[in-house]
Amino acid sequence: MDRIIIIHAKWVMFFTLCCISMKFRVMIRGQQVPCLFFMGDSLSDNGNNNMRITVAKANYQPYGIDYPAGPTGRFSNKKNVPDYLAQSLGFANPVPPFATATGTSVKKGVNYASGAAGILDDTGGALGDVISLNRQLLNHQITIARLLLILGPFGVTSYLNKCLYAVNMGSNDYINNYLLPQYYPSSKLFTPDEFAQRLMQQYTRQLKSLYNSGARKVAVFGLGLLGCIPQVLATTPANASGCVDYVNNYVQLFNNRLKPLVDDLNTNLPGAKFTYINITSISLSFNPSALGITVFNAPCCIVSSGGQCVPNQVPCSDRDQYIFYDNYHPTDIINQATAARSYNAISPYDASPFDISQLAQQ
User: Fold this and answer.
1) Cα-Cα-Cα-Cα dihedral of 60, 65, 66, 72, to 10°?
2) 351: closest CA among 281, 265, 271?
3) Which of 21, 42, 171, 352 is an active site residue?
4) Any catalytic annotation for residue 342?
5) Is the pTM here over 0.85, yes or no?
6) Which is catalytic among the residues 2, 45, 83, 326?
7) Is 42 noted as a catalytic residue in this protein?
8) Contact, 1 vs 176, CB < 8 A?
9) How is the beta sheet containing 109-111 ordered, strand by strand?
10) Which member of 41, 114, 285, 329 is catalytic?
11) Over the stretch 140-161, which tens digit does the pLDDT of each residue have?
């Protein structure tokens, strides 16, 4: 499961963000890119885990309580960030999950994300069979083979060069790996800095593999403040900040390496247009009261000991008053706000060197 948000003084962040989302009315004139691909974890998953043997799934109520189709596998009461990004980029419908994408639908793109998945192959394994980033890259190769049949051998690479990719990985490498010493040895084998470096070495190889498959426009999302999510606060005493500071410090070691990685890829890979979406910056710039959010560090739904919604229980009545839907994942209003700010950066710190609207035009 995964990431996000803030508490106390840091609440200033997600909420102005929400205000921005309410004003976010982009004039869409058709699709801005021919296709859209997502790789990630439960913040992006829209159904890939539904039929897998894992507890990291959300295809039951009260997930999807506000989504027109009901529970779909999205870890939210309604939409997730990929849904809102697709909408902002002019797509008439959400990008389908790889698990159900068929026929020519793959021309518009595919969502490969898998709840509890990580950069490392063993991340999330304690929760069952999840699809690591390496396996998501292999699934993309299957999609490319399908596109070869549709577009022919000479059209696929140039087509993919024009598409937009969003990669949101790393939260579970902490939540469902490094911070779970009872299941994973990583915290005994590596210091926090060494672990961040290990992640970055693997991530670099994976992003280069994506580039070698034809991706040129790639948005790489940073991690949010994992020390502020209800699941961490339920198990570890908070500091004066209202969060578990050492967890946030671990995450920052990873985030600090992302922008230099993006800069290096853009410098050394011909035609590469990678960009870094700074979720921490987006989070740290906001003000709660403007949206009417009143509950900052408790979930909207009744949660199990594992932090997910208990099946078929009635959640809070006003989801827009909550930041978190369960102990890990944000509500729809926060997803909308995050997508809005990622698409149209307000601060120069939000995205570098492009926001997603600019990336689409590259």
Assistant:
1) 10
2) 281
3) 42
4) no
5) yes
6) 326
7) yes
8) yes
9) 109-111, 36-40, 164-168, 217-221, 273-277, 351-352
10) 329
11) 999 999 999 999 988 999 999 9
